[in-house]
Design goal:
With 148 residues, this protein is of the alpha+beta class. It is 30% helix and 35% strand. Strands 1, 2, 3, 4, 5, 6, 7 and 8 form an eight-stranded mixed β-sheet that branches. The relative contact order is 0.15. Keywords: Transferase.
Length: 148
């Protein structure tokens, strides 16, 4: 998988991320479009994975003001490419980016849909809140991974 980082809100490339997110979150999981497309995308960092120039995976990253914590959001792989290790590749690329280009980042955090918790645990993320919560009517738990 070939990766493209969007650090500047380039809408021509962000369209690929939006297309993936619409397929996964809005059409498959029936998340309200107003929740999914929350208006924050222009301010955040995005990663898009391509196979044969076709967008197949995405995530966005929200750095805190001190740039010590990166919250990974909107992790998605299109249905026909799941089970091929692309989610692992995507997450490993985020970790590589954090370590190489932002060494001040100490923690990667995310809000995991409950069925995805085992996936994140394999990447050494740990649940930080035993009591989960609903986000867009989907059960979630917060998870973190220490980098330093």
């Amino acid at each position: 998988m070939k990766f493209t980082w969007v650090l500047d809100g380039d809408t021509s490339i962000l369209k690929d991320a939006f297309d993936i997110r619409k397929k996964v979150f809005i059409y498959e999981q029936h998340v309200d479009p107003g929740i999914e497309l929350d208006g924050l995308d222009q301010q955040l960092i995005h990663l898009i994975g391509y196979i044969d120039n076709r967008p197949v995976a995405t995530a966005r990253i929200n750095l805190n003001d001190a740039k010590t914590k990166a919250k990974i959001q909107r992790v998605a792989v299109i249905k026909e490419h799941r089970g091929q290790g692309l989610g692992f590749e995507l997450m490993e690329e985020i970790e590589r980016w954090a370590k190489e280009t932002n060494p001040s980042i100490e923690v990667l955090s995310l809000s995991a849909q409950d069925p995805a918790i085992p996936f994140y645990e394999k990447l050494n993320y740990r649940i930080t809140n035993e009591k989960g919560y609903l986000d867009a009517n989907i059960p979630h738990h917060d998870m973190e991974k220490q980098l330093n």
